[in-house]
Amino acid sequence: MVLPPAVVDALRCSVCGEPVELADRALRCARRHAFDLAKQGYVNLLHAKVPSGTADTAEMVAARAEFLGAGHYDGLADRLVARVTTSGLVLDAGAGTGYYLARVLAKEPRATGLALDVSALALRRAARAHERLGAAVWNLWEPWPVASGSVSVLLNVFAPRNGAEFHRVLRPGGSLFVVSPRPGHLRELAAVADLLEVDERKEERLDNVLGGRFEPVSKEEYTERLTLSAMDVRRAVMMGPNAHHPERLKRLDDVREPLDVTASFVLQEYRKPPSRP
User: Fold this and answer.
1) What is the pLDDT of residues 109-141, one digit of tens each?
2) Are strands 170-181 and 259-271 parallel, antiparallel or unpaired?
3) Is 24 left (phi over 0), alpha (psi -120 to 50) or beta?
4) pLDDT confidence of 244, banded at 50, 70, 90?
């Protein structure tokens, strides 16, 4: 597995910002900084260890892959994919295992995908999710090692939002798709775990992050009922930030029966205004 050429063209050296080339399974810039490709196909561009409790653990990654693989969020993925039309580079900021990005690439045969995430464990799976997908480990809160204006479509699904970098890497006229949980999302799981609450001001905070940089295009709220097996109840809890707080999860071991839960999301599309002469 190697990085697609369009991904290499878009990536930049995370030390000096120069363009990179792929040679001998490593990305190298003109100043001789080098980043080896892992055998799983992703590249780690970070210079420092990730703080504890930031990146997804192996258990969290496995839980997410199994939960999404069971099709529980297919309705959300279908709605997201239906809105994306591009032959350019699609960047998924906080891509995790690459589930949504791979779905987009399967629909758009001329597009290429770049998955950015702070979890190398998650990107091991993302790098194998689609042949036109390249994956790079990076902290989304830092300036991204991605060329300005190189991205046609940007995805942000349940992930950190760096509005300044969203705007910088998107080409003029490019599209940004943001998916967030709504208040009440998976609320029934509170009966079996002490869950972190969804921020009721999340949309207001999103407007603050993106305001002045992007034009709103559309907004869709989507709610459905899911029936989760006892194992998928555990996966639903373990695939998110709650897994970093084991003291909240003691009651999960008592779950033995399926549970009906509410999945509720908001999908918002934004557009980066075209450049003005």
Assistant:
1) 999 999 999 999 999 999 999 999 999 999 999
2) antiparallel
3) left
4) low
Which residues is 152 bridged to in the sheet? Answer: none
Dihedral-angle region of residue 149 (phi above 0 means left; psi in -120 to 50 means alpha; beta otherwise): left
Q: Residue 258 corresponds to which amino acid?
A: P
Type and span of the H or E element at 12: none
Amino acid letter, residue 245: H
How wide is the angle at C-alpha 135 spanned by C-alphas 20 and 105, nearest 5°?
115
Contacts of 51 by beta carbon, 8 Å cutoff, 6+ apart: none
- Residue 194's Cβ-count burial label (10 Å; 0-12, 13-18, 19+) is middle
**Please, which residues bridge with residue 266 across strands?**
180, 221
Tell whether pTM > 0.70. yes
Q: Where on the phi/psi map is residue 179: left (φ > 0), alpha (ψ -120 to 50), or beta?
A: beta
Number of H helices, E strands in the chain: 8, 11
pLDDT value of residue 277: 42
Distance CA 239, CA 62 (A): 8
Q: Which helix (H) or strand (E) holds 271?
A: strand 259-271
CA atoms within 13 A on the CB side of 6: 17
